[in-house]
Write a structure and sequence with these properties.
single chain; alpha/beta; Quinone Oxidoreductase, Chain A, domain 1; Rossmann fold; 2 domains; seven-stranded mixed beta sheet; six-stranded parallel beta sheet; 17 strands; about 30% strand; globular; binds zinc ion
């Protein structure tokens, strides 16, 4: 048994409360991870606000975890002492059409860390070793934790945009600041759209390599090849469609979005496309972590002790910081 403190969502709406949990010895492929850092995601706010279906209470949120393996089940693919990352995907069936066609992110029986499986807002976390990513010795837990959702989901959205020479990003938070650096280092031009008058986010976008910054009500200065929407604002979809060229695509990267208002068919015509990104596959994780090793990605991190998880969530909601909030259990 491992005794662990955790910030638990016991009822709809929260707040999170500190509880002591006893983790049993891992069996099969399971491992117990000592959490070194867990980044906070907008999805954690959607969880708190009951904007996701079928939330299991009580639940420990957190799906961007870097930690050290402490104990392993007899069939686990990890070893004690190894550094691992745990992301959103925690379980799939392995046998449905989606799973066997390489789209395990769409598995109907999938379960997710910090949503249906207790996550990383805790000192320790139990996970299936097959869904954890081995990390190199010397990996910086603080800098790496935000890569595991913001980076991964951002990367999946980015991949769907193809090799857009002119790429718009709408909503400049955790995912955008990572994608922007990846795209800029690959020679793509980034146009960042933020809330009107959000000069801090605009300065942040410039630091991450954007060639143009403006408000989400401004028209794009050039026709865009693709647009990534990370803000949970449905009205941005028709706006982004008007900014992309014929044949261009608009990719929605969030798990939740307000309703998309009606718009004229002419805005979609010309073979423009709208798509969404759901979850991630383990292959996305392996590809992106490999890419991140080759590029220089500076994650802007704001740390909070585990007990201050509610403060971190509030600050994310209020847009107090740019970049990512990361909980450090200590
Ligand atoms: Zn499946
Ligand atoms: Zn997330």
């Amino acid at each position: 048994m491992t005794s662990s403190q955790a910030m638990v969502l016991e009822n709809a709406g929260g707040p999170l409360v500190m509880r002591t949990r006893e983790l049993p010895l891992p069996t099969g492929q399971q491992i117990v991870i000592r959490v070194l850092a867990c980044a906070v995601c907008r999805t954690d706010l959607h969880l708190m606000d009951e904007e996701l279906p079928d939330i299991r209470y009580p639940i420990i949120p957190g799906h961007q975890v870097v930690g050290e393996v402490v104990t392993c089940g007899p069939e686990a693919s990890s070893e004690p002492g190894q550094l691992v990352g745990a992301a959103w995907l925690g379980h799939t069936c392995g046998s449905c059409d989606h799973c066997t066609r390489g789209s395990e992110n769409l598995c109907d029986a999938a379960r997710f860390h910090g949503y249906q499986i207790d996550g990383g807002f805790a000192q320790h976390m139990m996970a299936d070793s097959r869904y954890c990513f081995p990390l190199e010795d010397g990996t910086d837990p603080l800098a790496t934790a935000p890569l595991l959702c913001a980076g991964l989901i951002g990367y999946r959205a980015f991949s769907k945009a193809g090799d857009a020479a002119h790429l718009g990003i709408y909503g400049f938070g955790a995912a955008a600041h990572i994608v922007c650096q990846v795209a800029a280092q690959q020679g793509q031009k980034i146009y960042a759209f933020t809330r009107e008058g959000d000069e801090e986010a605009q300065a942040f976008a410039r630091r991450c390599g954007a060639v143009w910054v403006g408000s989400s009500t401004d028209a794009a200065p050039v026709p865009l090849d693709a647009a990534l929407i990370f803000a949970p604002v449905g009205a941005l979809v028709p706006k982004a469609l008007r900014d992309v060229r014929k044949g261009g695509s608009v990719v929605c990267g969030g798990i939740h979005m307000s309703d998309i208002p009606a718009f004229p068919y002419a805005d979609l015509w010309g073979e423009r496309q709208i798509s969404s990104v759901a979850n991630l596959t383990r292959e996305d994780g392996r590809e992106f972590l490999e890419l991140a090793r080759r590029l220089t990605i500076n994650t802007e991190v704001h740390t909070y002790p585990l007990a201050a998880a509610n403060d971190a969530l509030r600050d994310l909601r209020e847009g107090v910081f740019s970049g990512s909030a990361v909980l450090v259990p200590g």
